[in-house]
Amino acid sequence: MKKREDSIVGFIGLGLMGGALAMGLRKQGPRKIWGYDIDPTVIKMAIDRKVIDEGAFDSEGLKKMLPQCDLLFICLSPKDALVFLTTYMEHFKTGAVITDITGVKEVIINNLGNRLRNDIDYIPGHPMAGSEKEGFGNADDSIFKNRNYILTPLPTNQPENIELIKEIVTDLGFNHITETTCEIHDEKIAFTSQLCHVIAAALVDCEDDLSITDFEGGSFGDLTRIAMINAAMWTELFMCNRKNLLNNIEKFESSLEEMKRMIEAEESAELIQRLTAVREKRIIMGEIREAKNLKKE
Amino acid sequence: MKKREDSIVGFIGLGLMGGALAMGLRKQGPRKIWGYDIDPTVIKMAIDRKVIDEGAFDSEGLKKMLPQCDLLFICLSPKDALVFLTTYMEHFKTGAVITDITGVKEVIINNLGNRLRNDIDYIPGHPMAGSEKEGFGNADDSIFKNRNYILTPLPTNQPENIELIKEIVTDLGFNHITETTCEIHDEKIAFTSQLCHVIAAALVDCEDDLSITDFEGGSFGDLTRIAMINAAMWTELFMCNRKNLLNNIEKFESSLEEMKRMIEAEESAELIQRLTAVREKRIIMGEIREAKNLKKE
User: Fold this and answer.
1) Coiled coil: which residue ranges (chains A, B) (predicted)?
2) Using a CB-CB distance cutoff of 8 angstroms, which residues of chain B are in contact with residue A291?
3) Is the alpha carbon torsion for A14, A19, A23, A29 positive or negative?
4) What's the topology of domain A185-265?
């Protein structure tokens, strides 16, 4: 793999995440940045703002762009990323390092099968950052500061290419990188991300009083900010990780049911004990996270 | 009721909330501030920091304090507030305005019955602010800025006394005051506050991996911050508002169940429609709240 300053970097999809990643990469001084988006006005905006040097918005443009890119970030939804990878497989540059940012990982790997060329290095990734806002116009690379990045390398990945991705994302602001398998990623993410979004959505869904915020002290706002969801994208993530998500919804439902039962039966002593354990567990979870932040600052 | 500058104000309980309210009241220049707390070291700290002028930490002290107070804030848990009101009813100053800050309201009113003296004016209240921290040492009156205050006046309350409380809490930083009944308060609060705390606790409860934050992008942190709960206080709140809370848990469970069913049945189109409606509802809820903030600034 070439050094970053000698590399041509490409972004497939210049939405909120693709746009922010390209903005961050710009500061790392690659030789050239290419951007692809189906919306030509986004390409124009990205060139005007000097986020990318050259753009493509159709298949013809892509076929010019892809053979030049030493490093490629696929910033699409899982299904679109899969379609893109299979459709343009023959156009990637020999030796290219390709990564993606999809929120679920198994669906891509399992469906790519043996179509992955062995002269390119595809390293699946997942930056744990985002916003309830959407699109290139809202892109801002400060969202990466102190966030987690997850890499789910394949057995065939070159160590030096994994190292390169790690250096790039560290310089983007991410402060904790976890390497794991696609399988473990999807299990864990079903809890931390997808279950949380389902809960937030259900909480808004079940309340009809639009002025309910008259009675709120912060909790409702905190729990439901992520309910301002991109419905199509999240439905796709939920469906792609269906089994893990259903397991996690059930896991949560049974804890909720236990607490409901204690309240119903007025088992105060038991509930105090349970809530005390919850408090301690959550404090430890926070401290483990905090220690990782401190280490990297 | 006397003017604020001529009044002697008392605080019963100098915890996080009582302490913060006393700090805020100090800036409003009352003639004198009294504080009661069972912990003498808290009283000493509050006097040293000039938050209160004189303190009491036992029944004898209270019997000296209460007959002097024109305005009294009871900053205790619901059950302790009820015990305090009934135990010291005969010691309140004639004409005193008394308010409280408990998170549930019916339990106090329903149990006080006809023991409430008719020469004092008890106006139940609920400041919708707080912190996962506890105690006077963490008290800080900046937590009131732009928060909601709920008053649940009784039919016997004097309009000028309700007005006085509203002026005081507005000057404390609260920017939206809702007047409602104890019954409606308890119904609404079961959703915005107690249900949210039960959900946060269940979400931490159901996860065993203490390093789960390696996989988090902000959602899990936002949803579970309030799981660092004062177990005894919240158990009391849950039990005092048991029926409303159980109704709200069930309301939430059925929305969650609906979404789970759609994911299970892979009903993508239906789920996208539902999540789109959720997004729109949450945006409107936020805008209604925002409009109230702007009005008061």
Assistant:
1) 242-269
2) none
3) negative
4) 6-phosphogluconate dehydrogenase C-terminal fold (1.10.3660)
Chain A residues in contact with B198 (beta carbon < 8 A): 256, 259-260, 263
Euclidean distance between CA atoms A225 and B283, whole angstroms: 9
**Would you say residue B291 has pLDDT above 90?**
no
Res A113: pLDDT: 86
CA–CA distance from A56 to each of A43, A50, A64, A82 (Å)? 7, 15, 8, 19
Buried b (16+ CB within 10 A) or exposed e, B24-59: bbbeeebeebbbbbeeeebbebbeeeebbbbbbbee
Q: Hey, are the CB atoms on B242 and A264 less than 8 Å from each other?
A: yes
Q: Within an 8 Å CB–CB cutoff, is residue B265 touching chain A?
A: no
Whether the CB-CB separation of A190 and B217 falls below 8 Å is answered with no
Q: What one-letter code names the amino acid at B34? A: W
10 Å CB burial of residue A41 (0-12, 13-18, 19+) is: exposed
Contacts of B284 in chain A (CB under 8 A): 210
Which residues, at least 6 apart from B233, have a Cβ–Cβ distance to it below 8 Å? Answer: B77
User: What is the Cα Rg of chain B in Å?
Assistant: 21
Is the ipTM beyond the 0.95 threshold? Answer: no
Chain B CB within 8 Å of residue A289 CB:
yes
* Per-domain boundaries in chain B: 4-180, 185-265
Question: Are A215 and B148 within 8 A, CB to CB?
Answer: yes
Question: B4-180: which CATH topology?
Answer: Rossmann fold (3.40.50)
Tell me the C-alpha distance between B44 and B14, whole Å: 11
